[in-house]
Amino acid sequence: MASSGVATTVEQGGDASISALHSDIITSHILTRLDGPTLASAACASSQLHAFSAEQTLWKDICASTWPSVSDERVEGIISTFPSGHRSFFSDSFPLLDHSFSSSCNPSRLAPASELISAVDIFYKGELVFSKVQESETETGWFLCSPFRIDLLEQKETVPTPIRHIGDTTESLKHLEENLTLSWIVIDPAQKRAANLSSRKPVSVTRHWLTGEVQLRFATIMPGDRRGEFVQCGMVVTCKGSDGGELHVREVSMQVEAMEGNHLNGKESLVILQGAIEGGKRKREIEEGSEGKARFGEFLEMKRERKERSQRRERALDMICIATGVTLFMAFWSFVLFR
User: Three-state SS for 160?
Assistant: First the structure.
């Protein structure tokens, strides 16, 4: 009956409307084939598609296929408390944070989070090679005063991957840079918000000259807690070749670094991360690779300039101290000689 109705509409010379399709066909055979951005665009096409696209099952399946880690029972429970469930979570987590805009909220006005949830996925050529969810408590004195760091693996723990170790060459590093991607979503359960803090593609790939380990750095540059200041939310994935020829992941970590090169403590990092999650501007562009590397390069340049200015100030102070010391010494001896 539904197909007959569609044929009649077309035969009468009119443009076939989406309303001519049975709702089951739209929700079960059309919308389920769309990815998140396409489904969001379809929702803007008509009121009918908007209603169909609000179905939570669609967004739950999209989130699970985009980030397998969010299928974790605890994470699913937290996402269900978001204003629009999985649709809100996708809207928060799929776009990258826009480096060029400061947070639109004052993080000091937010209630301090009692915990942060990290949902992390690593992909190689689009295939999942690592996935983990980790809870980080944020209220103890140890967390607030110690350098902020989230480690997903224990010191001697390694995770095997199907990635073949293709030699210690520049080409192998380039290969990993082009094919390995990271998603690191940080969830604030109290505020019911989330943000993907990764640059998705590495901003640098290096090999340790002694151990041969490959370190891939992902980073998002964010405004600091003072005007004109920036910090690097850096994520490191360290891999090492095995006897069988595969790469093993031995480190997946996150830290927040200031322009002076020091790592922020838990209290400072929590303020910055909450500000980014709650008020950080999201962007829709997908050309994240070159832009992320460019922004990371700008941050390194700002660090270098800051260090040079600091060194110049220190040299100037040293010269002042030396000159003052010599002057006092000469004055003292003049007093002794002509007494």
Answer: strand
